[in-house]
């Protein structure tokens, strides 16, 4: 069977999860003094924001 294509809501949900994961990584990096982990967390948050925007765009183009 073929894979179901992701809906806008799926992308928004994934984006929210990436943002939450990123906030946790950033906080862990800040607490431990690990600059790389902190930067990775910020990158995950940006990735999540982009996925959320992609989801909104998919819904607009339906």
Automatic annotation (TrEMBL):
Residues 11-62 form the CsbD-like domain. Residues 1-62 are annotated as: Disordered. It comes from the Bacteria. Pfam families: CsbD. Residues 7-26, 34-62 have a biased composition (Basic and acidic residues). InterPro entries: CsbD, YjbJ_sf. Belongs to the UPF0337 (CsbD) family. This is CsbD-like domain-containing protein. It comes from uncultured Rubrobacteraceae bacterium. The lineage of its organism: Bacteria, Bacillati, Actinomycetota, Rubrobacteria, Rubrobacterales.
